[in-house]
Amino acid sequence: MTASEEFAELLPATRRALLHRIAVGQAEGRTPSLVGAVVREGQLVWTGARGGTDGQTPGADTQYRIGSLTKTFTAVLVMRLRDEGLLDLGDPLTKHLEVPEAEGATVAQLLAHTSGLAAEARGPWWERTPGALRPETADLFGERPLVHPAGRRHHYSNTGFALLGALVERLRGAPWGDVLAREVLEPLGMTRTSLAPRAPHAAGWAVHPWADVLLPEPAEDTGRMAPAGQLWSTAADLARFAAFLLDGDERVLGAATLAEMRAPGAPPEGRDWDGGYGLGVQLARREGRFLYGHVGSMPGFLATLWVSADDRLAGIALANVTSGPSVATVAADLVRITAEHEPWIPGPWRPLPEADPALLALTGPWYWGPTPFLLRLRADRGLELSPVGGTGRASRFRAEPDGTWTGLDGYYAGETLRVVAGADGAPGHLDLGTFVLTRAPYAPEDAVPGGVDPDGWRPR
Fold it and tell me: What is the pTM (predicted TM-score) of this model?
């Protein structure tokens, strides 16, 4: 029995606490309905709802519009193009699209909202008007398409993601929605995620700020702006997407690319960092917990999906109201409540199925000058370097076919680690991005840059 099978059911106290959070969110947020869900170890383990849609209690299969959560789906498509070698994140967008308004902005900057492009498409209010008003990409821009120099600061841009959707269409030769369905939705089994609503679905409402009365909101097809916020989905389908964001799926994107997407793509602004943005993925810190995913809003709807990799949990919140409840806080609280009531239980330790003696010989202490480090062997010939005593630069390394390793995180992310043989053919020292690590502090027999004093270590 796997850990996910053993703990598939949440405890009654956990379920009650989760339902209480949904009930409070729906009542205090004055929203016609609110659906919440929790994903643990890639499995949907709880859903709850308060309120109603057309007289019915919504469920995990009820569609809600998810707004800017759509952007993460668009980013996945762009990263697939990158992994296939059809583009580089450092490419100027204009290498692939004739969009002079985005001159100088790279694909990565568009993904991270650092392109400098204006936040919104030119009027009228694109979220509440037909996309036919802006039939071509050139129709998205007003008098000031660029409001900041490219790469200088984070500035959220819906138009930037509209351009990324056009980029997908250009390189795939098919409409963005068709590519999304074929390459992401179908492989992940997301049969209830679509560009237009499919019954059963919630209707979008605005709630009067000073009275408990409603106003229906329009649900327009936003056309060229669709890659920024068009999608409708369900709690059950978003649970499948959360499982993908947690561990990856080689049919769509591998775990390494997803880890790249959730690395901060722009420096934080403000004195107290509590949020950021990666490559199509929002980042947040809530009560010491690192979350990634996205929030979304469209007229009549609010949505959030947060994933906590450390807890192996995800929280989802969907509401059919223009404003009111903080669904981002609700989704984060669903993760927190579950983690506090039922902390993640790691799987059992197991030895490696095999170990190359040459790699085993590399493990143990190494020294960068006088600073001690430990090198450990991990699965798939991977290595992990960590400072003794916790002070220093740590990193994990992925084995490469040429016998080197590539850093995955920390200071050495992307840097190359190689073993340099000594005169006897045995491993002499490690070269890590030109830093030399030896088997003894400043070992004189190794190639320490700058040399080692021939008198060696001495009393003062």
Answer: 0.89
